[in-house]
Amino acid sequence: MTPTRIVLGITGGIAAYKAAELARLLVKAGYSVDCVLTEAATHFIGAATLQAITGRPVYQDLWDARVPNGMAHIELGRDTAALLIAPAAADFMAKLVHGRADDLLSTLCLARDCPLLIAPAMNRQMWAHPATQRNAAQLIADGVTLLGPAAGEQACGETGLGRMLEAADLFAALTAFLQPKPLAELRVLITAGPTFEPIDPVRGLTNLSSGKMGYALAVCAHAAGAVVTLVSGPTALATPWGVTRIDITRADEMLAAVEGHIADCEIFIAVAAVADYRPAEPQTSKIKKTDAAMTLQLTPTTDILARIAARPDAPFCVGFAAETEAVLEHAAEKRLKKGIPLIVANRAQDTLGHDDATCVLIDAHGTHPLARAPKTEIAAQIITHIAHLYSKG
């Protein structure tokens, strides 16, 4: 059975408050969370808070008698999916490098038989100090996974690298770390969201795509081990953890971004709802309203997926077909016309702008319907199917 317990180690630092939100996210996702605090951590966050969130005892003492055999540093490291230290102070990183074991958390780190991940958090000068950088490099060499740090405003009032990742980013990074890696080290390029084709400086043609499916696929592809680049039209979505994002507005900008990166990719997933037409002559100043009718001349945009699929060095291509009628027939026809191995078919009115979706995967072997579910779950199933087809060559 795969372990579902996470041990969350918390050391001293103002970023300790983020550990409470991280624990909440892990519990919500179905993990059992055991928290271990250093003495310094108790100055920033209370055991009662963490116990209320996790519903489990919080450990601080190396000699904690609540553990049946009195060996919390042994028991907490067994049948555990991962030990994550967040925040990991500079002092604690130095402890890990030298193998010091003078409290429960540091002793647990030596006695564990599960992966160890740390989220550094400290002042920018402390992070940049040669000693800290040597320690970070040594921890990586020892097999420890470092998550962050990020750049930004710090509690000391300075700005720079050293800030602990946000709880949502740590949750995404940890859950991705724990996932199987069927796309390990493969490079995946994904398009997402709508495009916006300007009519004049204040108006344009666009569509109802929210970008949620494309972003969910980027999250799942990264979790599956891929190196992911996301070319995104205008959306209100945050960049997924571990994903490189390229922002564009128009269809021709999306085409240029895709062609600029496609040679480096093994898999291309075209999720974006790219405009099929654009104004032939966008105006440079606002078109004034009159009582007369106006005719807007449109010209076709380039079919990005078809163009990429036709390349002699084409990657494994996946398309999406959002149809309003005869969904399977139109999608199957598109797959053959574009010459791609897989297309995802759905009803436009059931998916555009929604948080959940239902779809049918169409490949050379037939149709594979996916029941309605949140787009995050649908995306995970699509990535699994892509990995299976890709592995079969």
Task: Please supply descriptive tags for the structure shown above.
alpha/beta; six-stranded parallel β-sheet; 20 strands; Rossmann fold; single chain; 34% helix; 2 domains; 393 residues; 14 helices; elongated
3D structure, described in words:
The protein has 393 residues and is an alpha/beta fold. It folds into 2 domains: 5-178, Flavin prenyltransferase-like (Rossmann fold), CATH 3.40.50.1950; 187-280 and 295-391, CoaB-like (Rossmann fold), CATH 3.40.50. The protein is 34% helix and 26% strand. The chain contains 14 helices and 20 strands. It has helices spanning 17-28, 47-54, 72-75, 90-98, 104-111, 124-128, 130-141, 167-178, 212-223, 251-261, 304-309, 327-338, 348-351, 375-391, and strands at residues 5-10, 32-37, 58-59, 82-88, 116-120, 145-146, 150-153, 159-163, 187-192, 197-200, 203-205, 227-232, 244-247, 267-270, 277-279, 298-300, 316-323, 342-347, 356-363, 366-374. The strands form 5 sheets. It has an 8-stranded mixed sheet, sandwiched between helices. A 6-stranded parallel sheet has the order 3-2-1-4-5-6, sandwiched between helices. The chain starts with a strand and ends with a helix. 43% of the residues are buried. The mean pLDDT is 92.
